[in-house]
């Protein structure tokens, strides 16, 4: 129950202090740092060859000692920036992570592929898992890794189709993840989203009950649900809480600053030459061939 307050807006000072001390808060701060680094570099190609500076630090994401779910949060700016190109998405991850750890690398890419499909409207909830499996098979991973992740994703899909309870999903997916060296947190996030894909709040409330992994599961579920449902599904009171400048800084930035950073990242991705200039109100925009009526 207390983990619910690690992600919802409008928490009191005690709850905020607990959230700020949580390991997840550091992952959020790293995500903000990497979004800022992308903006300073202007492109992934420049980011890859840039001499490290205070604004553009040297990549320091390590698979060892970090769960794949937590690393997915840190890599979220890269997933968003590269969502229109699977090849660029993989190359960006290879630059910041040790791709020799194939299983863990493939798990992280699994979440990136699923998120990219939702952003491009290439996948609907019913086919998201199968299309993600297809993309993994096209990515050149070893047969052993492909079989392990395919079995893991099949368990996720089965839990969704059978509409099992959250406790049953945890009991099913976490042992399966351990057996296949997959990360159960990403599986639970997919389950929480796919169970009620059209109801962002319900998906997040379910994720918030995911035992001691609730904060990470909720963050990843929110990314998937937000990509599919758009900003319009976020409750008004959550918007207002984020815009309240009296809110304490959990990730080292206020809600207004994070929102501005996200807008600047979007303008940079869309081709704006200098995203550091005064922000403009963007019209509807998406990857080529994608219509976004919402």
Explain this structure to me?
With 294 residues, this protein is mainly α. Helix content is 61%, strand content 0%. The protein has 15 helices and no strands. The chain has helices at residues 13-21, 23-41, 44-49, 68-74, 76-81, 86-96, 102-119, 128-137, 143-161, 166-180, 184-195, 200-207, 214-229, 236-242, 255-269. Helix 2 (23-41) runs parallel beside helix 15 (255-269). It is globular and about 45 Å long. The chain starts with 12 loop residues before the first helix and ends in a 25-residue tail after the last helix.
Number of helical segments with 4 or more residues: 15
Point out poorly predicted stretches.
Answer: 1-20
Number of strands: 0
User: Roughly what percent helix?
Assistant: 55-70%
Task: Tell me about the largest β-sheet.
Answer: none
Shape: globular
The proportion of residues in beta strands is: under 5%
Radius of gyration, taken over Cα atoms and rounded to an integer in Å: 18 Å
What class would the helix/strand composition place it in?
Answer: mainly alpha
Order of helices and strands: HHHHHHHHHHHHHHH
Distance linking N and C termini: 33 Å
Q: What's the mean pLDDT score?
A: 77
Topology:
Layout: H1 13-21, H2 23-41, H3 44-49, H4 68-74, H5 76-81, H6 86-96, H7 102-119, H8 128-137, H9 143-161, H10 166-180, H11 184-195, H12 200-207, H13 214-229, H14 236-242, H15 255-269
Helix pairs in contact: 2-4, 2-15, 4-7, 4-13, 6-7, 7-8, 7-13, 8-9, 9-10, 9-11, 10-11, 11-12, 11-13, 12-13
């Amino acid at each position: 129950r207390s983990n619910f307050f690690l992600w919802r807006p409008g928490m009191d000072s005690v709850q905020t202090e607990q959230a700020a001390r949580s390991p997840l808060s550091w992952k959020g701060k790293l995500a903000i740092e990497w979004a800022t680094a992308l903006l300073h570099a202007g492109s992934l190609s420049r980011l890859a060859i840039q001499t490290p500076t205070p604004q553009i630090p040297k990549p320091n994401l390590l698979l060892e000692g970090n769960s794949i779910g937590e690393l997915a949060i840190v890599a979220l700016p890269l997933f968003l920036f590269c969502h229109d190109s699977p090849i660029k998405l993989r190359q960006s991850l290879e630059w910041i992570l040790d791709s020799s750890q194939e299983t863990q690398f493939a798990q992280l890419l699994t979440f990136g592929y699923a998120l990219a499909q939702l952003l491009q409207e290439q996948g609907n909830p019913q086919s998201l898992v199968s299309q993600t499996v297809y993309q993994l098979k096209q990515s050149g991973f070893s047969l052993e890794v492909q079989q392990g992740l395919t079995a893991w994703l099949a368990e996720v899909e089965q839990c969704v189709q059978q509409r099992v309870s959250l406790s049953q999903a945890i009991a099913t997916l976490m042992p399966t993840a351990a057996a296949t060296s997959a990360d159960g947190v990403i599986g639970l996030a997919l389950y929480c989203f796919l169970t009620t894909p059209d109801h962002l709040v319900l998906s997040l409330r379910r994720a918030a009950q995911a035992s001691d992994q609730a904060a990470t599961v909720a963050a990843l579920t929110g990314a998937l649900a937000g990509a599919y449902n758009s900003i319009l599904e976020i409750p008004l009171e959550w918007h207002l809480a984020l815009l309240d400048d009296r809110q304490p800084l959990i990730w080292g930035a206020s809600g207004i600053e994070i929102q501005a950073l996200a807008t600047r990242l979007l303008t940079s991705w869309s081709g704006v030459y200098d995203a550091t200039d005064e922000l403009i109100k963007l019209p509807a925009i998406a990857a080529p061939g994608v219509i976004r009526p919402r």
